[in-house]
Amino acid sequence: MNIKLMDIQRQHEENAKEYEDAALAVMKSGNYILSENIKAFEKEFAEYVGVKHAVSVANGSDALYICLLGLGIEPGDEVITTPFTFIATSEAITRIGAKPVFVDINPDTYNIDENEIERAITVKTKAILPVHLYGKCCNMDKINSIAKQYNLKVVEDACQAAGSSYHGRKAGSLGDAACFSFFPTKTLGCEGDGGIITTNDDDLAEICFSLRSHGFGVGGIKAYNKKHPYHPLDVETSLDVSSPKYFNFLTGCNSRLDEIQAAILRKKLPKLDSFVKRRRDHASFYTKELKDFNYKLPIEDKNCIENYYVYVIQHPEAKKIMDYLHQNGIGSLTYYPRPLHIQVALRELGYRQGDFPIAEKAAQTTFAIPVYPELTLEEREFIVKILKEFQ
Question: Counting runs of H as helices and runs of E as strands, what totals does the chain give?
Fold first, then answer.
């Protein structure tokens, strides 16, 4: 067999005409930037998550950066996060000039250990950035409680968590704001790059709308005045309304979700819960079939409905198992083989091997197997057969 770890082509093919018709309609319309599909998708996604606002952007990395910038994170500030995640999480912090402060992970969930956060807080700490890794929500009750005690902002990195929920609330509605990625492999993926910020904060939403488009126009003035309430600008004296795009009031960026991608996402969003259900069905099968073997399997949290962006197994001989899977035509991968604190790109932070032993162990002993919705019953049975053979 040839079973990919992620098979985005299958997802397209399952509803190809629907997605292609949506894209073609945009191409024929001549309205390609911030048009009706963007506005509609932002509204629909906000309603799905259960928040007031959704601000679409070009990708998940920009969502994190713009959100932190909009919250007022500045050079020299500190943001607490996990070392066991994709570098985009810390990159959003360092792009601003702030400092990522890492906390080790929980060995059972692979998420940030909420019991270690408080000791990492300093006078420079401004926010906590928990990552819902693999789609499993962090302990947001404890994290929000700590944040409230120390007057910190909480931004969910929900880039892998579209469709997950915690105590009955959707990921993306659990902090001051949240950020999602619509990279094609995600549970809700577009057919290119895309991202979004969700929040109930009116001021933050307005600032993020402005920051994604160079901080120009009336929105830029409103965002500026929210950030500088003691020195507000007047629209009439500050802006030529005949050419507003050339009057800029914040240093933002060009980070807009494409109209075509929004049109496709609008077709996929109503299917998201069914995508998650199929992933969870595959995950349940794996857990049932492998529970008596020498694998550490994902632990279901009664408070969280996990979307199973990936199904991750832990074993001391993970690398040998992945080799055996590959020999039998089964895709697998470690998420993530090198924790952030020992990445060369973050060497200046001063962390060393051994600083976060649980994250380092997970990087050496975990691997993901295929769990995408379109996986067939025959394929998942074959995957289990090969995993049992290794034992």
Answer: 14, 12
- Written as six digits, the tokens of 83 are 């070392």
| CA atoms 241, 245, 250, 255: torsion sign | positive
Residues 349, 350, 355: CA angle, nearest 5 degrees: 110
- Full DSSP string of 342-388: G-GGGGGG---TTSSHHHHHHHHHEEEE---TT--HHHHHHHHHHHH
A 10 A CB-CB count for 218 gives 15
In this prediction, residue 227 carries a pLDDT of: 86
Closest CA to 355 of 128, 82, 125: 82
How, if at all, do strands 125-129 and 78-81 pair? Answer: parallel
pLDDT in tens, 300-311: 998 999 999 999
Residue whose structure tokens are 């994250």: 359
Per-residue pLDDT reduced to its tens digit, 106-127: 999 999 999 999 999 999 999 9
pTM of model > 0.85: yes
Other beta carbons within 10 angstroms of residue 203's beta carbon come to 15
